[in-house]
Each structure stands twice: as C-alpha cells, then as structure tokens.
C-alpha cells in the first residue's frame, strides 16, 4: 500500500512537471533543433521518459533547470547520431551499389556505431584518443605513444580499457 501511495505521488509530480513545463520545453527544444517540430516533439517525450526511467526528480522550483539538463543531453545525442549517420552513409555511397547493405543492416550498424561512440565519449580523453588513433588512423602503439606523449605501456592499458568499454556497449 505504501508503494502504491509513493507511485501515485511520483506520477502526480511528473504530471505537474509536464503541465507546468512541457510547452516551454517544446519551444526550447524547437529553438535548439532549427525549428524542427517533429524532432522537438520526440525529444520532449524522450525527456519525460528519461526522467521517469531514472527515478530522479527535481526539487520544487527547479523543474525547468532539471528538464533542460536532460533535454540538452538528448539534443547532443541526436546531433552526434546524425553526424555518425551522415559519415556512415557517405562511406556507403563510396562503395559499389551491389555491395550496399540492406536497410536493416544499415540500421544495425548505425546503432552499433552510436553505442561505441557513446562508450568512447564516457572515457577519459587520452583513452578514447589512443583507441581512435590506433583503430581508425592505423597508428602503431609506439606511434600513438609518441603522438599523445605517453608510454607504450599506457597505450596498451588504454587500448584494453577502450576495447572493454566498446564490448560492454555492444552487450547492452
């Protein structure tokens, strides 16, 4: 019974946040998304879903700031995903048409790229840079160490950490 009362109180709190701030947040999102109403509506919904999923709610009087923080992260994620998608589609366009993957395969690969990008973004800068220099620029560990001003052993340690982060992201 106590759990039902708590659940009802949280639902009422989310409802109040929605009623008080959704229209304002929609306008804020639309402004950040170049006026795109569809993306703004999607991210508005995603903001409230993220709020509910995390179970963290703002203290009284801080609803806008709290929702803006969530929405800002979603806008960044959307832009990052679109940049990755654009680069991926550009790379596909350079390949012969008969080698083009199916739309399902393209969506799967894009999802994997986004997850790996997010995993690398959560790592310290030198760790992700070492991984990118090695895997995407083809530098040897020795070259990565010289470029980043770190030891060969540090590069090995960073590569292990980055690889583990990518594998965990793929398991999610």
From TrEMBL:
It comes from the Bacteria. Keywords: Sigma factor, Transcription, Transcription regulation. This is RNA polymerase sigma factor FecI. NCBIfam families: sigma70-ECF. Belongs to the sigma-70 factor family. ECF subfamily. InterPro entries: RNA_pol_sigma-70-like, RNA_pol_sigma-70_dom, RNA_pol_sigma70_r2, RNA_pol_sigma70_r4_t2, RNA_pol_sigma_r2, RNA_pol_sigma_r3/r4-like, WH-like_DNA-bd_sf. The keyword Coiled coil does not apply. Residues 114-166 form the RNA polymerase sigma factor 70 region 4 type domain. Pfam families: Sigma70_r2 (PF04542), Sigma70_r4_2 (PF08281). It comes from Alloalcanivorax profundimaris. The lineage of its organism: Bacteria, Pseudomonadati, Pseudomonadota, Gammaproteobacteria, Oceanospirillales. Signal peptide: none annotated. Residues 17-83 form the RNA polymerase sigma-70 region domain.
């Amino acid at each position: 019974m106590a759990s039902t009362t708590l659940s009802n109180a949280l639902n009422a709190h989310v409802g109040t946040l929605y009623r008080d701030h959704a229209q304002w947040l929609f306008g804020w999102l639309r402004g950040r998304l170049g006026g795109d109403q569809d993306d703004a509506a999607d991210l508005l919904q995603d903001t409230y879903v993220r709020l509910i999923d995390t179970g963290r709610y703002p203290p009284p009087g801080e609803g806008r700031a709290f929702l803006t923080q969530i929405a800002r992260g979603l806008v960044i994620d959307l832009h990052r995903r679109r940049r990755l998608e654009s680069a991926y589609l550009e790379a596909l366009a350079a390949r012969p048409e008969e080698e083009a993957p199916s739309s399902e395969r393209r969506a799967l690969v894009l999802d994997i790229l986004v997850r790996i990008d997010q995993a690398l973004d959560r790592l310290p800068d030198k760790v992700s840079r070492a991984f990118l220099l090695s895997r995407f620029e083809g530098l040897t560990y020795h070259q990565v160490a010289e470029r980043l001003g770190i030891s060969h052993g540090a590069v090995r340690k960073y590569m292990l950490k980055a690889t583990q982060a990518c594998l965990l992201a793929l398991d999610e």
